[in-house]
Amino acid sequence: GAVVSQHPSWVICKSGTSVKIECRSLDFQATTMFWYRQFPKQSLMLMATSNEGSKATYEQGVEKDKFLINHASLTLSTLTVTSAHPEDSSFYICSAPQGPSNQPQHFGDGTRLSIL
Amino acid sequence: AQKITQTQPGMFVQEKEAVTLDCTYDTSDPSYGLFWYKQPSSGEMIFLIYQGSYDQQNATEGRYSLNFQKARKSANLVISASQLGDSAMYFCAMGETGGFKTIFGAGTRLFVKA
């Protein structure tokens, strides 16, 4: 079964709305989670590393005020796209490591975000 | 710097035939892991196979095998007896023990023909 749960799967909303995406680790604790963005027919682009109990680490070029990340517990990280605009439409996917960094990560099923 | 290269944007294979998806990598960390993921059109990332840098034998998982050539820094995925359901995007990825993030290649889209 899935070890990382991501919700919602689909979001369609109006421009200017803020959208929250949740990523939960099931049956294990994740002090770190990763948020990726993926455009059609492209690879995953790491946006930020979510750290439990501390600030997220953002990749270069990712707007911190646009993409708010909160890692309030050992099993939950949230990504909030604030004041979303059509250019924020994309596929967002989270992952969590269950072991050392040279081991594969567990991915959520992703969220398709469409901003009208 | 660590890097993953997948040079095949798209591949076609006839159903029931084998296909090899290429992946080369670059790292200075002696301890690392190589992974392949399948991403169907629905979007979820499905983990297929893992190869550790110190593993002596090539990894196999059912119809998937990883042709690991350490000296050449290549980690090609071999899918035997292709099925229509294998049509998807395939990503090669790497994680370093001394690192933190997983890095991904650009991906290869596989089309299986009936």
Question: Can you lay out the helices and strands and say which pair or pack?
Answer:
The complex is a heterodimer of chains A (116) and B (114).
Chain A: E1 4-7, E2 10-13, E3 19-25, E4 32-38, E5 45-51, E6 57-58, E7 67-73, E8 76-81, E9 90-96, E10 106-107, E11 111-115
Parallel strand pairs in A: 2-11
Antiparallel strand pairs in A: 1-3, 3-8, 4-5, 4-9, 5-6, 7-8, 9-10, 9-11
Chain B: E1 3-5, E2 10-14, E3 19-21, E4 24-26, E5 32-39, E6 46-52, E7 60-61, E8 64-69, E9 74-79, E10 88-96, E11 102-104, E12 108-113
What shape does the CA trace of chain B take? globular
Rg of chain A, alpha carbons: 13 Å
The count of helical stretches of chain A stands at 0
CA(first)-CA(last) distance of chain A: 34 Å
| H and E string of chain A | EEEEEEEEEEE
Low-confidence sequence ranges of chain A:
none
Instruction: Indicate the structural class of chain B.
Output: mainly beta
Largest sheet: number of strands, sense, barrel closure of chain B: 6 strands, mixed
| Helix proportion range of chain A | under 10%
Shape of chain A: globular
- H-E order of chain B: EEEEEEEEEEEE
Major β-sheet annotation of chain A = 7 strands, mixed
Rounded to an integer in angstroms, the radius of gyration calculated over CA atoms of chain B is: 14 Å
> In whole angstroms, how far apart are the ends of chain B?
41 Å
Secondary structure: number of strands of chain A: 11
In DSSP terms, counting alpha (H) and pi (I) runs of 4 or more, how many helices of chain B?
A: 0
